Amino acid sequence: MLEGKAKVEETDMPVKMQMQAMSIASQSLDLFDVFDYQSIAAHIKKEFDERYGSGWQCVVGSNFGCFFTHSKGTFIFFHLGTLNFLIFKGATL
């Protein structure tokens, strides 16, 4: 696992959901190689889909840009060590 505490950069999630996001991210780093971004992201997405219903998206990496629309109350961007985590539920039209 990467050393250090998660630092939230931006979010509109409820605090309990934020804590679960960071906990699941930390657990995923224990399960997968720190450079296996795809497996880490897939694990986090699966956990969120199971807990909060389908439609969640997750991006993990050290350098990425993004532009998206999300459902209110479902967005978090944080980093843990050198890795960035973006988790959100896509907006329904």
TrEMBL record:
Primary site of residence: cytoplasm
Family from the record: Belongs to the dynein light chain family.
Origin: domain of life: Eukaryota
Keywords: Cell projection, Cilium, Cytoplasm, Cytoskeleton, Dynein, Flagellum, Microtubule, Motor protein
Protein name (record): Dynein light chain
InterPro entries from the UniProt entry: DLC_sf (IPR037177), Dynein_light_chain_typ-1/2 (IPR001372)
Subcellular location: Cytoplasm, Cytoskeleton
GO cellular component: dynein complex; microtubule
Originating species: Cardamine amara subsp. amara
Pfam family, one: Dynein_light
